[in-house]
Amino acid sequence: MDEQISAVREAVIAGNAPETEAAVHAGLAAGLSAKRLLDEGLVEGMRHVGQLFEEGEYFVPEMLVAARAMKAGLAILRPQLMEAAIEPKGKVVIGTVRGDMHDIGKNLVGMMLEGAGFEIRDLGVNVAPERFVEVVQNEHPDIVALSALLTTTMPNMAAVIEQLKAAGVREQVKVLVGGAPVTESFAQRIGADGFAPDASQCATLASSLVS
Ligand code: B1M
Q1: Distance from the CA of 100 to the center of ligand 1, in angstroms?
Q2: Which residues of the chain fall below pLDDT 70?
Q3: Ligand 1 touching residue 64 (CB < 6 A)
């Protein structure tokens, strides 16, 4: 069992997408849960890649191919990670904030929210505060979900909240924030309605906010 999980982890670290796909398929065929393959295989492999980058062993190209491998594995797990929901619980507009190109965590959060029954409007990466405001004004979502992976882009989460206030629509939506460097105290400081450390806790929090 653990052999299959470490095969997934190693394939991500090696940045080998076909091997990652094969290892995920093998894990599922062996009866491993999608959640274990995700948490202990894909996410753990990516955590290790970040560590190698910090240690100067990996550079941006290695991070990029590892990200591609992780995405390939995630695509296979997607159906298993999502439960069928009949009525949408609410609408979530999600995006990675301006200046930030990281989208794997944001995609995972979107997937989990979709699995929890939300309709998702994904604005992608490097999203300007004005764009979030425009979509809130035109599409009236229940929640705005912001992701940031860089300490330098975290202030752009505050900028979104400020611009929602300036446009007079702050009270119409709940704002959730998350991403590796984001903390509960940062979320409180910028006036967000909630923070979640990972995708599944984000789905739980979002559900509690709309219920
Ligand atoms: Co970048 N990168 N990167 N990178 N990268 C990090 C984030 C870094 C920590 C690496 C390191 O130094 N150890 C570091 C940031 C340092 C800092 O600011 N504290 C870093 C850096 C420095 C950079 C560049 C500046 C490098 C350079 O060019 N010199 C550059 C910046 C580009 C930019 O954005 N402007 C850069 C570029 C890249 C790539 C493009 C090569 C690639 C991204 C590819 C892609 O996303 N399509 C990349 C990658 C892959 C990483 C690491 C290795 C992995 C990120 C990841 O996908 N993790 C990362 C190191 C690390 O995090 N260990 C690193 C897996 C993912 C599932 O986790 O995104 O954390 P994560 O999401 C989690 C939670 O955070 C949470 O749920 C998810 C899972 O449950 N979550 C939320 C996320 N969003 C949420 C929102 C919520 C709630 C929870 O509510 C709404």
Answers
A1: 9
A2: 1, 83-87
A3: yes
* C-beta of residue 90 within 8 angstroms of C-beta of residue 184: no
Distance from Cα 199 to the centre of ligand 1, integer Å: 14
| Residue 192 Cβ < 6 Å to ligand 1 | no
Ligand 1 centre to CA of 13 (Å) is 15
Pocket test residue of 132, 143, 149 for ligand 1, highest count of atoms within 8 A of CB:
149
Q: At what angle do helices 199-210 and 104-115 cross, to 10 degrees?
A: 50
CB 182 within 8 Å of CB 152: no
Instruction: Spell out the domain ranges in the chain.
Output: 2-83, 91-210
Decide if 179 contacts 126 (C-beta within 8 A).
Answer: no
Q: Whose CA is nearest to atom 81 of ligand 1?
A: 179
Q: What is the pLDDT of residues 88-140, one digit of tens each?
A: 789 999 999 999 999 999 998 988 888 778 899 999 999 999 999 999 999 99
So what CATH class is 2-83? Answer: mainly alpha
pTM of the model: 0.90
In the CATH hierarchy, which top-level class contains the domain 91-210?
alpha beta
